[in-house]
Each structure stands twice: as structure tokens, then as C-alpha cells.
Design goal:
By secondary structure, this protein is α/β, with parallel strands linked by helices. The chain has 3 helices and 5 strands; from the N terminus they run αβαβββαβ.
């Protein structure tokens, strides 16, 4: 049987703990980003689904389906009343955006 000095055991343990902490500090953000890609949170700002503009107009026509809409150029981001987020692409025609006004949905425009 071999004899191992207790100080050597403690030094090995300290070395393993320090290397583990350094590894987590270096690779922790990568692991976090990977998990966020695999298991996205519902509180993120991106759209969960992409819908056609014609479906958006139909959904806005029915009261209680769409909570709010944010228009940024030709990009339209919004939230359904059940909490899901969506994204749609508006046609270049400004008259098409007028179809969304006056339907009881909160609409904000960003430059």
C-alpha cells in the first residue's frame, strides 16, 4: 500500500476546485447562451411566431385577439392576448398600415 501525504491530498483538492471555478467562469457564458437557445424564456423580446400580414389584419378585426402592435418601418411586432409574441412584415404601401388603425388595438410606431 502506498502512503499519500495528507497535505498533498489537500493541495490536489484545492487545485481541482480552482480549475473548476476558472473553467466555469470562462465557459459559463457559453453554456448559458446554449441553454437559452435550446430552452428560450417566454419573457424574451423576440417573436415566437411569424405570421403573414393578411392574417394580422384578420386577427386585428376580431376583438380580443391582439393586445398590442409595435411598427418599426416594415417590421411589425406584437402580442396576442394570450401572451404569445408575433412578427409580421408590412407591405410597402402605407395604406395597408391604415387597416390596423381604429380596431381597438394599442399601436405604437418607432422611427
Amino acid at each position: 500500500m502506498s502512503y499519500v501525504d495528507p497535505k498533498l491530498k489537500v493541495n490536489r483538492l484545492i487545485f481541482v476546485v480552482v480549475i473548476s471555478i476558472v473553467t466555469l467562469l470562462l465557459y459559463g457564458p457559453l453554456l448559458h447562451a446554449g441553454f437559452r437557445m435550446i430552452f428560450p424564456s417566454h419573457s424574451t423580446a423576440y417573436a415566437e411566431i411569424e405570421i403573414p400580414f393578411s392574417q394580422l389584419v384578420n386577427d386585428v378585426d376580431y376583438p380580443g385577439r391582439v393586445r398590442d402592435i409595435r411598427i418599426n418601418g416594415t417590421e411589425i411586432y406584437g402580442t396576442f392576448n394570450d401572451g404569445r409574441h408575433f412578427e409580421a412584415h408590412a407591405p410597402a404601401d402605407p395604406a395597408s398600415i391604415q387597416q390596423l388603425h381604429g380596431k381597438g388595438v394599442l399601436i405604437t410606431k418607432q422611427p
